[in-house]
Amino acid sequence: MNVLHVRNCSTLKRIERRIARRKDIFTLLECEFRLTVNFM
What we know:
This protein has helices spanning about 1-20, 20-40. It is an all-alpha fold. The relative contact order is 0.21.
């Protein structure tokens, strides 16, 4: 599940970059937070 989740985050970041670069930072932080919770 972690690998699939990482791929989803990458896809989200690509979409966010196309829509608004400012939101890319928040998306990255959200992905990192979710990954941390998943590993714990």
